[in-house]
Prior knowledge:
Order of helices and strands: HHEEHEHEHEEEHEHHEHEHEH
Shape: globular
CATH class of the largest domain: Alpha Beta
Mean pLDDT: 85
CATH architecture of the largest domain: 3-Layer(aba) Sandwich
Helix content: 25-40%
Strand order of the largest sheet: 8-7-9-10-11
Structural class: alpha/beta
Number of helices: 11
Low-confidence stretches: 253-260
Number of strands: 11
Number of domains: 2
Amino acid sequence: MDQNTLKRLLQQLLDGSLSIEDTIQRLSHFPAETLEHACVDHQRLLRTGVPEVIYGEAKTAAQIITIARAMLERGGPLLVTRVNEEKAHLVTTALPQLHYHHQARILTGPGRGIQSEGIQGLILVICAGTSDLGVAEEARITAEYLGNPVQTLYDAGVAGLHRLLTRQQLLSEAAVIIVVAGMEGALPSVVGGLVSCPVIGVPTSVGYGTGTGGFAALLGMLNSCVPGLGVVNIDNGFGAACLASAINRTQTVKPAEGQR
């Protein structure tokens, strides 16, 4: 349940098109619904601006189907992360209205996602190399599904810095920038030195032996001397997108009380 759904429900109650009994029935799973393997938080979008999201990697296809079906029945948005091809095939066979984003390993529900009122700021997703695309696409799909305008700048790592420097206009237009990089993780520091907006670094588990599964990139980003740079966990494109979306929402200028 989101704010618009709740408003419509209450308006129907006020104008008499919905009875008290029907309203109670509609709210019977508000704010949560207990299933066999989960307790679905239908109120989360209304409360936080981000809906309940299914983390699919450690769940079976059957568990994902059960949870997703409960969310779809309540009319809520649906996002399932970290779903491999085999699992995605089983889920979409049972729920054909879902769409699988192969590179991002994400399932999304029907429609265009959350329609966020007033969000106008651009989220720019930059990734250092083609090997980082999976994490970058997870960030892009998530940010778009949360109602944000998103653009991308891919394969723009520090080994060929001219690829980034020729896109200064795009960098200056962004309200928030997500920078995805593996290896030594230097790219967020470079980007942070070129822009005034918040920059979110996402270290990836891409790199040779001493990269130690992304820890080298993580430590490099955490030790950056560039102000205004925040860092999320290794390969956490989803978390970066949620943070960027929250920043974008708070940057939206709202009219003062009594002004329109």
